[in-house]
Predict the structure.
Amino acid sequence: MAVQTVAPAADTPTVDLGPAVALSCRECGARSPLGPSFACPECFGPLEIAYDLPSGDPEALRKQIEAGPTNIWRYAPLLPVPADVASLPGLNPGWTKLVRADNLAAELGVTGGLHIKDDSGNPTHSFKDRVVAIAVQAARTFGFTTLSCSSTGNLAGAVGAAAARAGFRSCVFIPHDLEAGKVVMAAVYGGELVAIEGSYDDVNRFCSELIGDPVGEGWGFVNVNLRPYYAEGSKTLAYEICEQLGWRLPDQIVIPVASGSQLTKIDKGLKELIALGLVEEKPYRIFAAQATGCSPVAAAYKAGHDVVRPVKPDTIAKSLAIGNPADGPYVLDIARRTGGAVEDVSDAEVVDAIKLLARTEGIFAETAGGVTVGVLRKLLEKGLLDPAAETVVLNTGDGLKTLDAVAGTGPTATIRPTLASFREAGLA
Amino acid sequence: MAVQTVAPAADTPTVDLGPAVALSCRECGARSPLGPSFACPECFGPLEIAYDLPSGDPEALRKQIEAGPTNIWRYAPLLPVPADVASLPGLNPGWTKLVRADNLAAELGVTGGLHIKDDSGNPTHSFKDRVVAIAVQAARTFGFTTLSCSSTGNLAGAVGAAAARAGFRSCVFIPHDLEAGKVVMAAVYGGELVAIEGSYDDVNRFCSELIGDPVGEGWGFVNVNLRPYYAEGSKTLAYEICEQLGWRLPDQIVIPVASGSQLTKIDKGLKELIALGLVEEKPYRIFAAQATGCSPVAAAYKAGHDVVRPVKPDTIAKSLAIGNPADGPYVLDIARRTGGAVEDVSDAEVVDAIKLLARTEGIFAETAGGVTVGVLRKLLEKGLLDPAAETVVLNTGDGLKTLDAVAGTGPTATIRPTLASFREAGLA
């Protein structure tokens, strides 16, 4: 991540972002005021949100949440958003299905209960709608009029759609070689879409440059200068998983790693639920999943390193193809601290896993879902994941956006509309 | 629809389909026992489900529904399904968003409140998950082991996914010229997928032939021999719309017409809610939407006919391309009885409407959604729809499945990752 701060405009309005009280450095702990900043003014470390979370009766908070809307705004008391957020125009993502995956469990020998948290049910069919929804509130609060981002595809669609609905201009940046579905989806909402000749990491670097340029004034880059807010959206995955389990922590979670932000925030969300008394404390293990063609965190984990060495991505799992993951070291730390692991699977294993999940549970995942299900299988084979423990696997996107991955899949037969032709094809 | 009955197997188990008590002929009213039949044994008219619906305190029923799961099974007391349906393996569709479309309303001059019922949020991203979910329960009850259908695409995916999860074999039939996304989605769940050289109507005729053949024994064709059950799934759209409005009828609804079944069942659902006292009775108007390239019902409506003359479809709205709509006459009757209308839009208007909805509300609809939004606009222009009345428009599918319709949509510019290149492209 580029080390750079953006000073809040002098006319920044009084900030009402609910329980959020400050920005806090993840490295040195220094606090700074809420604003469109992403690096610590003291040490240039990454910033995250510090809260004054509701204290008192957990049962009352649980009831308040349960009475809320069936989207992420049921957790508004735990998020950096104004209290009336549910009434503002937005896509209202979240409260996606936690699918009990008994068929898949039987096939893989998982006996402790297996669930897929299926975020393809979000408005633009990826988990990115969660993080963008939070960033939109920050953008509104800080007076930005253009929403922007660097994206491997899913985020571009999520930003385009959210901007359209919430009344922002949008200008999003993508690598030039994305899947057709993601490109059309990013463009169809009518904002500016700019393709960059380069990798996602090139796009990201370009955006950091743009944000320091006068051209970028008034622009809220959801994953750059609004990143501390944006990233908090992933906490809602932790909240929903636990609430959908009946206010209970799972034993094991398998999470895909691109920048690593999602995994670190799910861990943060679980810790908050424990601290608030909303779930009973018990050990949980977090497993990180990468595609072998872009597995810098898995490589560091296996080598026993603390530092993540950037790679040049080469995988069909484009939504995870971040060669220089900003939160890589935090992922390593969490996997090691919780007794999890970081594992990777080849593109062929990704495709197999997409088909396995579709065939057993009727869920058509994008390549990132193939990565987590493939890693689940590999972890079981290696004895790193306990088959007798309750396990949740994330599917963060939709197979319709990565059709090429299963392009060989088509009709069993093509016939004339007659019984004779049906019989000739050997189908009777 | 082919006029043919399929006798229940002699060993049909005792039927427990909740409040469903019999099959009833829509033409002559004759009753027959619940079974895998679709045509009246007396007059060959189409059969539908007759219920013994809960009587008594509407407030208690309303509370029971509100305490139910956030999917169609909250309405189990009003559907032909066993009481424990929510605990059986299935995709659990429904409870999709009713989106308040203020931006679109402003653009079109609707002042009475405009909502999009967005069924792209279902598990396989179309409303078909609703009808298939009900058909699966009937198939289970009647002892079928293979799920089948004729499909314009969406249904094939819905059947494939539901069969995979619920433990059925599947074999589905599609026309050979469908969109790539729909073909892959129909195939990826691992069932048999058979492409037929012909139109949807040819596929449909072939399935009717197959069902009378020994080959089709043990096969539940969701939209043929299970059709009376299947069709009831569309009632849940009516239930959800009214509950999401706060247990209130809308004034006007715009519904797409393929076979016409969905529209007739939404009308049935609204009437049930009134009869049960769950909503206050008031007049409502139902508008039917077709693509001009397959508009036999609109043509009959405009000509003042009661009979629908079959056409050969030629439109990009393939999910509505049924040239010989079984429920066409009922659609005419409902539109006329409620003071609605039947209107159609050209393919160009469909594409415009897809972009309009995306740009204003961040919803990327498939072509069928372009048809309803396009028809909404046309009805307003013609003064047939009251802009001051509360209006709900259905989006029944997902834009990712009909990418070709907006294939021209892409990046504003492709640039090198430099500020200079950004400026050269005129984007700064």
